[in-house]
């Protein structure tokens, strides 16, 4: 492999990150966005202090053949690395299913990577016009939703998910996200309440889930074939 994948962390076993399969998660180093509620800020820089050499990851996977069923490439933002697709293909040759967690930061790179995946967990940050409030990057919303179009056109199995910090996203905006996703033809949607123990922006105030959210969950469950609320 010409450019070894930079891996900043590894979860050896999970039942949550690839639907229905026992998987491990590889946290790829580097991200171009600065989401204020990011709970993995150590992964943002292109090079990390705790990187795991790719040969060591392969050694781990060789010992897990027949035990693990899938490998999930997460982040950071995995699709920013040129070594991602070769790594995904290498993992597939070892007999694993391939999962990808992404926000589609660069649509052209995402469109290439999604072809190498069996399943994608796709992060919708906000409505396209509101995304910069979360990511801190101009044009991020347009890129996010453009990559969604690539995902839907690919035919790859997927789930869309939105992480909610109630200081950055309110009930009405979340409902509008759901409506827009539904209009795109999305059938699987999950809402993830933010993990507040560690965030990139330490000054983000914590807010309780508003009372009217209960009605929103009911409406979203009616809107999508599969809807899930993940409240940590």
From TrEMBL:
Superkingdom per UniProt: Bacteria
S-adenosyl-L-methionine found in the keyword field: yes
Pfam families, per the entry: Radical_SAM (PF04055)
Membrane-crossing residue ranges in chain numbering: none
Domain Radical SAM core: 26-161
Alphabetical list of Gene3D superfamilies matching this protein: Aldolase class I
Alphabetic keyword roster: 4Fe-4S, Iron, Iron-sulfur, Metal-binding, S-adenosyl-L-methionine
InterPro entries (alphabetical): Aldolase_TIM, NrdG2, Organic_radical-activating, rSAM, rSAM_sf
Upper taxonomic lineage: Bacteria, Pseudomonadati, Pseudomonadota, Gammaproteobacteria, Pseudomonadales
Protein name in UniProt: Anaerobic ribonucleoside-triphosphate reductase activating protein
Source species of the chain: Pseudomonas aestuarii
Cofactor: [4Fe-4S] cluster
